[in-house]
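1st attempt posting a full record on here, be nice pls
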Amino acid sequence: MIIKNNEFSRQFETTVDGQLLTVEYSFQEKKIFLSRVNIPEQFEGSETMSDFLKQILLVAEEKKWKVVPIHPKVAAFFRKNPVYRELLPPGIKI
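the predicted structure (as tokens):
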């Protein structure tokens, strides 16, 4: 899966089966706030959604950003995948 960081729209993007998937973000003090998930219904809760979030978190890890999961789907991903909790800033509990 190839993702694009669309800095102008402040969202990560990928296309799967001709469908656009996006995760909107804001950025402040080396923290990325994942605030909105726009995923077509057929990908809800799927491996595709999980893979997309993993790719976004890989970018955050490479850039040494901390991740604040604002959107409930992102928070749920962190709960199901505790290996990524090291990306949470101090004081954020999921």
